[in-house]
C-alpha cells in the first residue's frame, strides 16, 4: 500500500488539502496529553470549524497500552459513526489507533477475534510527536494482554497518510529525545542484519543511520533546529519502514523485560541490549560456517559504513559512546539480587523475535549478555 507523506507547512495547508480529499464527516482523534500543547493539536481540535469534520476524542489508554483500551476505542468509533481515524502522539497512540482500525471490522466479544482480523476500511492519518518508534510506518501494533506483550499484525494496516511536523519535537523532554533516538538506531541496525532484510529494507536502514548520525551532536544535546528535527522525524520514519519489512531481532527480544523490571525507557533498554549483543555477535563469527560468517561480516560492514565509521569495531564503539553521552549506559541495580534477576531475564526472551536474528542464541548466551548489561 502506498503511503502519503505530508510535511507540515504554514497553517497546515497540505494536511487540510489531504483531509478535504478523503472526505470525512466525523473523525476519531486518538491522542495523548502532549497533543494539547502543540500547534498541530490545536489545528486538529478546530477541524469542526475549519473543515466541518466533527471530532470524537479518545484518550483512554496508557503507555504500553492494554488491548482493552483499543477494544473500547473501536466500540466508541463504531457507536459515533466515525469515518476517519487520526492518531496524534507517540508509539502508544499510533498502536492503539491501528488496533482500533482493525477491531472496528470484527466482533471483539469473540475469544478468537485476533485470529480473524480483516483489513481495516477506515482511513488512518498518523501524526507522530516523537522521533523514534516508527510506528506510523509499520503494519504491526504493540499492545498488552493480561500483562503480556502482544503484536497485532495485518499486512495492510499501515496509515494511509503520515504528517511530519518538526515543531512537535521542540519541547520534547531531553530524556525522551535521547531514548527515542536510541530506539530508532536499534531499529535501523537490527533491520540491517535481520534474516528478513532485503535490498529495499537496507536502503531505508542506511538512510535512517545516515540521518541519525548526522543529527547526533545537536539532537542529543537538545540544541537541534527545525531542520535537524525534520531529519530526525524522517530517520525514525525510514527506520520504521525498514523494520516493517525485516522486523526487529534479538536486541528487541531481550529488552522488554528490562523495561518492566527497571522502569527504563524502551529505547534505552533496546540500546543497552544491542550495545552488548553486537560485540558478542562479532566474537562469535569464528564459530559459524563460512557463508554465514561472510553474510554477517557484510552486514556489520554495511552498518559501519552507513554510520560513517571506518571499521565495525569503530561503529560498535560509536554506538556504545552514544549511550554514555545520553547517560543511559548503566542500570541502577542491587547486586545481591543479581543472579535471580538474570535468570528471570534470560527466561523472558521473546522466542518469536529470535527467528529474525541471524545467529542462534540460547539461554546461556542470554545469561552472559544480561550479566554484562547489569554489571555495566
Structure notes:
With 376 residues, the protein is an alpha/beta fold. The protein has two domains: 166 residues, Rossmann fold, CATH 3.40.50.1970; 202 residues, Dehydroquinate synthase-like, alpha domain, CATH 1.20.1090.10. The protein contains 15 helices and eight strands. The protein has a six-stranded parallel sheet with strand order 1-8-5-4-2-3, with helices on both faces. Strands 6-7 form a two-stranded antiparallel sheet. Strand 6 and strand 7 form a beta hairpin. Helix 11 crosses helix 12. The longest helix is centred in the middle third of the chain and has 22 residues. The model has no long low-confidence stretch (mean pLDDT 94).
What is the CATH C-level name of the largest domain? Mainly Alpha
Average of per-residue pLDDT values: 94
**What's the helical proportion of residues?**
40-55%
The end-to-end distance, rounded to whole angstroms, is 43 Å
Uncertain parts: none
Summary keywords:
six-stranded parallel beta sheet, single chain, Rossmann fold, 2 domains, 376 residues
Could you write a compact summary of the structure shown?
It is built from 15 helices and 8 strands.
Chain-wise SSE layout:
Blueprint (H helix, E strand, L loop, with lengths): L3 E4 L5 H9 L4 E6 L7 H7 L1 H5 L2 E5 L8 H13 L4 E6 L1 H13 L20 E5 L11 E6 L2 E6 L7 E4 L9 H20 L5 H22 L5 H21 L3 H13 L3 H19 L5 H17 L5 H14 L12 H9 L4 H4 L8 H13 L1
Amino acid at each position: 500500500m502506498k503511503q502519503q507523506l505530508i510535511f507540515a507547512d504554514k497553517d497546515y495547508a497540505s494536511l487540510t488539502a489531504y483531509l478535504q480529499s478523503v472526505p470525512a464527516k466525523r473523525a476519531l482523534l486518538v491522542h495523548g496529553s502532549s497533543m494539547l500543547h502543540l500547534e498541530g493539536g490545536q489545528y486538529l481540535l478546530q477541524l469542526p470549524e475549519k473543515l466541518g469534520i466533527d471530532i470524537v476524542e479518545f484518550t483512554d489508554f496508557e503507555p504500553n497500552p492494554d488491548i482493552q483500551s483499543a477494544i473500547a476505542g473501536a466500540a466508541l468509533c463504531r457507536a459515533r459513526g466515525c469515518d476517519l481515524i487520526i492518531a496524534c502522539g507517540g508509539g502508544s497512540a499510533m498502536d492503539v489507533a491501528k488496533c482500533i482500525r482493525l477491531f472496528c471490522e470484527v466482533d471483539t466479544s469473540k475469544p478468537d477475534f485476533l485470529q480473524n482480523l480483516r483489513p481495516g476500511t477506515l482511513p488512518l492519518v498518523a501524526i507522530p510527536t516523537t522521533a523514534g518508534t516508527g510506528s506510523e510506518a509499520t503494519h504491526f501494533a504493540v499492545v498488552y494482554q493480561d500483562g503480556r506483550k502482544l503484536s497485532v499484525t495485518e499486512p495492510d494496516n499501515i496509515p494511509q497518510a503520515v504528517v511530519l511536523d518538526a515543531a512537535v519535537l521542540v519541547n520534547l523532554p531531553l530524556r525522551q529525545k535521547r531514548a527515542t533516538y536510541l530506539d530508532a538506531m536499534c531499529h535501523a541496525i537490527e533491520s540491517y542484519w535481520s534474516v528478513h532484510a532485503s535490498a529495499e529494507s537496507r536502503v531505508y536502514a542506511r538512510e535512517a543511520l545516515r540521518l541519525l548520525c548526522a543529527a547526533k551532536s545537536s539532537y542529543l544535546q537538545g540544541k537541534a533546529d527545525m531542520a535537524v528535527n525534520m531529519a530526525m522525524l524522517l530517520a525514525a520514519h525510514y527506520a520504521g519502514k525498514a523494520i516493517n519489512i525485516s522486523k526487529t531481532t534479538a536486541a528487541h527480544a531481550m529488552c522488554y523485560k528490562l523495561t518492566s523490571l527497571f522502569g527504563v525507557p524502551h529505547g534505552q533498554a533496546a540500546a543497552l541490549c544491542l550495545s552488548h549483543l553486537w560485540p558478542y555477535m562479532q566474537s562469535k563469527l569464528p564459530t559459524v560456517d563460512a557463508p554465514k560468517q561472510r553474510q554477517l561480516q557484510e552486514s556489520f560492514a554495511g552498518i559501519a559504513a552507513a554510520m560513517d565509521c571506518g571499521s565495525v569495531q569503530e561503529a560498535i564503539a560509536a554506538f556504545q559512546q552514544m549511550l554514555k553521552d545520553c547517560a543511559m549506559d548503566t542500570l541502577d541495580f542491587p547486586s545481591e539480587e543479581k543472579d535471580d534477576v538474570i535468570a528471570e531475564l534470560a527466561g523472558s526472551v521473546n522466542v518469536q523475535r529470535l527467528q529474525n536474528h541471524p545467529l542462534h542464541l540460547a539461554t546461556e548466551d542470554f545469561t552472559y549478555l544480561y550479566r554484562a548489561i547489569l554489571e555495566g
